[in-house]
Amino acid sequence: MTSRNAAATRQRILEQARRQFARHGFAACTVKGVADAAGVSPNLITRYFGGKDGLFLAATQVEIPVADSFDGDRSALGARLAASIVRRWSGAPGEDPLLVLQRASGERPEAAEALAAFLDTNSLEPLHRYLRDSGLDDAQARDRAAAIDAFVLGVSTRRRVLRSEPGDPAALEAWLSATIQRLADG
């Protein structure tokens, strides 16, 4: 197998793992099920990832491109964040590693810890810094960032983890935008 084929195979396994973990959770997902869906031998998953735990860790590497949301005036923060959130939520179902982590956090303490640490580092703290840099004092910035973070996580849990339909993307974006903006403005 050439390295190019190995990279493509590894990527195919990760895509299938994200889908399986997102749909079925960690406990119900099996290495054989992921291997079958990816069209590979279960031994290949062990070789590439060391087993189910390693596969889970690789499948849940998350990135949130928040930097664009923090470019601009605070008066339009809600619109920028809402657009970014709805784009992420409207992607292919089951392929978002953040969704995989959210769903697994109820059954795997390490997933809950990873999700909390990730959100603190990549969402809460950058939002806190942005709000502080936009003219709020540190305590106000921290409180408002925490309120936005809790709101978005709550909506995400309700609509994505509990598998409620997110609804019309445009209406969802408008509602998120207005609510996030109210939270940012205090």
From TrEMBL:
<keyword id="KW-0238">DNA-binding</keyword>
<dbReference type="InterPro" id="IPR001647">
    <property type="entry name" value="HTH_TetR"/>
</dbReference>
<dbReference type="InterPro" id="IPR041678">
    <property type="entry name" value="TetR_C_16"/>
</dbReference>
<dbReference type="InterPro" id="IPR036271">
    <property type="entry name" value="Tet_transcr_reg_TetR-rel_C_sf"/>
</dbReference>
<feature type="DNA-binding region" description="H-T-H motif">
    <location>
        <begin position="30"/>
        <end position="49"/>
    </location>
</feature>
<feature type="domain" description="HTH tetR-type">
    <location>
        <begin position="7"/>
        <end position="67"/>
    </location>
</feature>
<dbReference type="Pfam" id="PF17920">
    <property type="entry name" value="TetR_C_16"/>
</dbReference>
<dbReference type="InterPro" id="IPR009057">
    <property type="entry name" value="Homeodomain-like_sf"/>
</dbReference>
<protein>
    <submittedName>
        <fullName>DNA-binding transcriptional regulator, AcrR family</fullName>
    </submittedName>
</protein>
<dbReference type="InterPro" id="IPR050109">
    <property type="entry name" value="HTH-type_TetR-like_transc_reg"/>
</dbReference>
<dbReference type="GO" id="GO:0000976">
    <property type="term" value="F:transcription cis-regulatory region binding"/>
</dbReference>
<dbReference type="GO" id="GO:0003700">
    <property type="term" value="F:DNA-binding transcription factor activity"/>
</dbReference>
<dbReference type="Pfam" id="PF00440">
    <property type="entry name" value="TetR_N"/>
</dbReference>
